[in-house]
Specification:
Blueprint lengths: L2 E6 L4 E6 L5 E6 L2 H19 L11
Antiparallel strand pairs: 1-2, 2-3
């Protein structure tokens, strides 16, 4: 899975992490449910539109 959810006790917040670009925080939430929802939606979008070749678009030269 490209997107993951992690809890940081120091800040008492849930972080949505994108592991494909290193470790980039793409969302911060106060509830686990909201963070999981964001991660699932982002994963679905990536699987549908973001994989190389899946969209039929070519990178600029």
């Amino acid at each position: 899975m490209r997107y993951s959810v992690r809890y940081y006790a120091a800040s008492r917040q849930w972080f949505v992490i994108d592991s494909a670009v290193g470790i980039e925080v793409v969302g911060i939430y106060g509830s686990k449910d909201a963070a999981v929802s964001h991660a699932k939606k982002s994963e679905e979008k990536w699987l549908r539109y973001g994989r190389a070749g899946a969209s039929g678009l070519r990178p600029a030269a």
